[in-house]
């Protein structure tokens, strides 16, 4: 029989479900407020712990917003991609970026530099906000 950590907890289900419905990054405080408004009894510290666990599993992507606060979004862990973020409404679109693989290969060949990872975000306005 597995340990409690092997099972999906109710807060993890609530947070993953909320993030699955949101096409934008949300702070832990925003997630906590929305869960409370929906009737969920969950502490802010539980939200942070759950987000940390989901991030460690690769299910959640994190970034800092303009004020430096960590924000989170559900992502597909098996597919490497980047984000196009609308400065108007905050909507996030996944962007496949084959050009990054070419860039990484160029770094290896020309400079002998092996990337451990990378992060790239694109900022602008979505169709609805233009």
Describe the structure concisely.
The chain has 130 residues and is an alpha+beta fold. The chain contains 4 helices and 6 strands; from the N terminus they run H-E-H-H-E-E-E-E-H-E.
- CATH topology type of the largest domain: Arc Repressor Mutant, subunit A
Report the strand count: 6
First and last CA, distance: 54 Å
Enumerate how many helices there are, as a single number.
Answer: 4
**Strand residues, percent:** 15-25%
Tally of individual domains: 2
Rg calc:
17 Å
Which CATH first-tier class of the largest domain would you pick? Mainly Alpha
Mean of all residue-level pLDDT scores: 85
Order of helices and strands: HEHHEEEEHE
Structural class of the helix and strand makeup?
alpha+beta
Shape: globular
Largest sheet: 3 strands, antiparallel
Helix content: 25-40%
Widest β-sheet, arrangement of strands: 1-3-2
In CATH, the architecture of the largest domain is Orthogonal Bundle
What does this protein structure show overall?
It is a single chain. By secondary structure, the protein is an alpha+beta fold. It folds into two domains: about 80 residues, Winged helix-like DNA-binding domain superfamily/Winged helix DNA-binding domain (Arc Repressor Mutant, subunit A); about 50 residues, Ferric-uptake regulator, C-terminal dimerisarion domain (Dna Ligase, domain 1). Helix content is about 40%, strand content about 20%. It has four helices and six strands; from the N terminus they run αβααββββαβ. Strands 1-3-2 form a three-stranded antiparallel sheet.
């Amino acid at each position: 029989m597995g340990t409690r950590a092997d099972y999906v907890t109710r807060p993890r289900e609530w947070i993953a479900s909320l993030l699955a419905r949101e096409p934008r990054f949300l702070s832990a405080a925003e997630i906590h407020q929305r869960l409370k408004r929906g009737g969920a009894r969950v502490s802010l510290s539980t939200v942070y712990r759950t987000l940390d666990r989901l991030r460690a599993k690769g299910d959640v992507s994190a970034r800092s917003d303009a004020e430096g606060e960590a924000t989170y979004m559900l992502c597909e862990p098996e597919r490497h991609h980047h984000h196009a973020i609308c400065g108007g409404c905050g909507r996030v679109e996944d962007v496949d970026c084959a050009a990054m693989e070419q860039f990484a290969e160029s770094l290896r060949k020309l400079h002998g530099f092996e990337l451990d990872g990378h992060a790239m975000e694109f900022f602008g306005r979505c169709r609805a906000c233009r």
